[in-house]
Known about the structure:
By secondary structure, this protein is α/β, with parallel strands linked by helices. It has helices at residues 26-32, 37-44, 57-72, 96-104, 120-133, 157-160, 210-214, 224-245, 263-273, 284-287, 294-304, and strands spanning 9-18, 22-25, 48-51, 81-85, 110-114, 140-147, 165-175, 181-189, 197-198, 221-222, 255-258, 313-320, 324-331. Helix 4 links the parallel strand 4 and strand 5 (110-114). Helix 3 (57-72) crosses helix 4 and helix 8 runs parallel beside helix 9. The longest helix has 22 residues, at 224-245. The radius of gyration is 19 Å and the shape is globular. The structure holds coenzyme A (COA).
Amino acid sequence: MQSQNKPVNAAITAVGMYVPDKIMDNKYFESIVDTNDQWIVTRTGIKERRLMENGATSDMAIFAIQDLMKTSGLKAEEIDVIIVATVTPDMFFPATACLVQEKIGAKNAWGFDLSAACSGFLFALQTGASLIKSRQYKKVVVVGSDKMSSITDYTDRNTCILFGDAASAVLLEPTDNLNFGIKDSLLYVDGTGKEALYMKGGGSLNPASYQTVDNKWHYIYQDGKAVFKVAVKGMADISYEIMQKNGLKGEDVAYLVPHQANLRIIDATAERMGISKEKVMINIDKYGNTTAATIPLCLTEYCRDGKVKKGDNLILSAFGAGYTWGAIYLTWSFD
Ligand code: COA
């Protein structure tokens, strides 16, 4: 029992995921743009990604949460808050969180969408953890869900090979054992990044029109080289910084759980942290960059493979559009 005045940590107590069945491998991209498997694998680490053919971001989020509920026994009525991290909401409004709430039957929940691109899951996790730490809420579901195929230009080889569709969710609950749960976070935004990675059309600046469609402004634009330069430094530095701040050495960290945008960025981050490759969660080869879903997708897969143990220290880190970036240090709370 938690006494009323004792501080609590927010701990991840359950995980769930959904990836669509349809696979787009590198061979497929060779058939639609001027690219090749070798270029894609050596420059990014990606071999395959998934495509949501029928359904939207909310559907993937729902499947991921249903998977979490089925495997953990969580009942929909028990959920207090639903936070959906996404840059591909079904619509501007209502929030995807409302659509998810209705379909899963979370009749006692409130919720909202959070937009921080590839850092979305970390920003949402920290927000959810703060709600738990406030002691006002006991069960917060954080789901990262992005249907990147809905904003990808499949004639642009610079971007189309990078992204995939997926969703993954975690449950946050309070723990009065402060050895477990989320222990620290470092999160940042820097709006100067707006020039390098964006989707220009559809918002209040450039409302949808024939012109915005003709100009392909409803697709992702990325200056890959510019983003790579800041992402590789940003993600490595923040991951190292949170270790330093918490007195952690390489051997104290069981896993780096990095956003999966580019294997070269991930490798550079692990190197800076002084941790070996076996201690890095990787699934970019199977799913590509699924934006807000990458980190919980890694957590779910590694957890279900029995690779994450109670007491393991994890460093989660991400870099994305905005720019947005950050790292979270947590100790895993279940086997
Ligand atoms: N197939 C073959 N060649 C391609 C290609 C593809 N799919 N995409 C780009 N190229 C070409 C470019 O046109 C360029 O050709 P050029 O030299 O004749 O102009 C060449 O490959 C090198 O392009 P460059 O952009 O320098 O490649 P890169 O090594 O930087 O890799 C990315 C490109 C996108 C993989 C990489 O820049 C990246 O990962 N960027 C950061 C992504 C990220 O972290 N985003 C934040 C979160 S979303």
